[in-house]
Amino acid sequence: MTVMQSSTAATFTPDTDTDTGAPASCSAAPRRHPRPDGQDRYTISEVVAFTGLTAHTLRWYERIGLMSHIDRSHTGQRRYSNRDLDWLDFVGKLRLTGMPVADMVRYAELVRAGDHTFGDRRDLLEATRRDVLTRIAELQDTLSVLDLKISFYGRDDRA
Known about the structure:
Elements: H1 44-51, H2 55-64, E1 71-72, E2 78-79, H3 82-97, H4 101-113, H5 118-154
């Protein structure tokens, strides 16, 4: 089972990665779910409230393949699970890295393709990590320049 499947059979625990089920390598605590597994059938408006994403964005994610099949109620309304919320949280982290949407969709496709894609997933994440480190270095350099300017303007002995 992958994170992209909307099933409550597998559960997310704080010690596992949301897409692989492997031990988590991130020290940040996972977000708590509003409902326990088995009772996690969220409407799109509930997901909007919980994630801060818009309904349009959620539908778009599904349409472009960033989200896999979302379960539907008997009336056709989308019903999201805790695993879907975990995936959306991870996608949010990828967005913060500046990863292009096409790469996020590629990553989602690799997850859906199965465990044999671990190497490709790792390569994609490592490339993103290198980009993030470059951006951090650029931001640290920019911060140093700002600190220098702030220090200059904060001195009382300016001419």
